[in-house]
Fold this protein.
Amino acid sequence: MRRTQWVEVAFSLLVFVGLIVLFQFPSRIPPFLALMMPLTLGLMLWQYRTMDEFRRARYLKAWAASGIVGMTAMTGLIAWGVFGALDGSSIRNNVQLSVWLLYIPWGISLFTFYAVTAFLYRRDTGG
């Protein structure tokens, strides 16, 4: 498990440096995503493989809750955009939803994952 934690730290630093570079060169987002998505999937599979049965159950439950909450938030943003465009006022028709609003459901989803993981850990360990 210790080796997995070192890989997590190295990956986090790589993502942090990558985000700093992306803020300076936004045109590099596609190659960054093409590199990070397989690395993230590989790290997640490695983490899952090193877990015991109870950790795996907590991990899967947290991912399920995170997905439900994240998709609900994303659906809310889409509904806001669709129904905002159907409104008759000319002010609303000229307002476009920003891509930066996607960070709201992503952030909510990540927070939900951590909160559910912490809750399940405390429930299972009695602490």
Remarks:
- Residues 120 and 126 are 10 Å apart (CA to CA).
- The chain has a mean pLDDT of 84.
